[in-house]
Amino acid sequence: MDKKEAIRKQVSENPVVLYMKGTPDAPMCGFSAAAIQILEACGVDEVATVNVLDDPDIRQGIKEFSSWPTIPQLYVRGEFVGGADIMREMYQSGELQKLIGSGAVQS
Hints:
Blueprint: H1 3-13, E1 16-20, H2 30-41, E2 48-51, H3 56-66, E3 73-76, E4 79-82, H4 84-93, H5 95-101
Parallel strand pairs: 1-2
Antiparallel strand pairs: 1-3, 3-4
């Protein structure tokens, strides 16, 4: 399976997917750490995370898949939401909670 198909499968099979640097327990950049904190604040109990540092092809592939140049990248129910700054703005406005709350991804 090529990287684009692998990414498509990940985002379609998981309600919430975060492509990040590092892991939720050990984020490797401040933006990835912020993204995890925002998801936790939204009450997300199941998030599939992909450490892009483990696979350079996925790291580059996700940027091409979304046409978005930076990581982290959040997908909710197969749709690209954005990076840490967009997540923060959406959280502050309540929009992210509504988006996540409209599916079965909260505890």
